[in-house]
């Protein structure tokens, strides 16, 4: 099943709300709460709120962008982002519900940002600057990756 976080947002948010703090991931070390905060952080990167540097060399970024954004490749399971040291970050929000609320507001801010800045290309630290449509592709693949992590994808 595909995820369309921008056109079927309520459905995706409802699926996240079906999680509870005790659900174990199929892969990776994140808890549901960590996963939602992580999704929220990537949405913030895309809506002009945080400017990050490119964390890999430009050739690697271009290759990743071609594979993930321009190609059919999913985000690989078990991928480790630079600087994570394979450790969970401290949680910023008091509850999973609060993290989901913040994620939902971040997605609304993403929409508003690109309405007001249609030519903007916020930096993705692993793939370089992405325009609105490229960020949508990334978000859809990224949400799908984490929905698979917690078995949130429902057969249609």
Secondary structure blueprint with pairings:
Layout: H1 9-17, H2 32-46, H3 58-68, H4 96-116, E1 123-124, E2 128-129, H5 132-149
Helix pairs in contact: 1-4, 2-4, 2-5
Written overview of the protein:
The chain has 156 residues and is mainly α. Helices cover 47% and strands 3% of the residues. The protein has a two-stranded antiparallel ribbon with strand order 1-2. Helix 2 packs parallel to helix 4 and helix 2 runs antiparallel to helix 5. The longest helix has 21 residues. The radius of gyration is 15 Å and the shape is globular.
Q: Could you give a quick summary of the protein structure above?
A:
The chain has 156 residues and is mainly alpha-helical. It has helices spanning 9-17, 32-46, 58-68, 96-116, 132-149, and strands at residues 123-124, 128-129.
The profile of the biggest β sheet is:
2 strands, antiparallel
Q: Low-confidence stretches at least 5 residues in length (pLDDT < 50)? A: none
Helix content: 40-55%
Cα Rg: 15 Å
- Structural class by secondary-structure content: mainly alpha
The beta-strand count equals 2
Which overall shape is indicated by the principal axes computed on the Cα atoms? Answer: globular
Give me the side-by-side strand order of the main sheet. Answer: 1-2
**Order of helix and strand elements from N to C terminus:** HHHHEEH
The amount of beta strand, in percent, is under 5%
Number of helices: 5
Could you give the distance between the termini?
8 Å
Mean pLDDT: 91
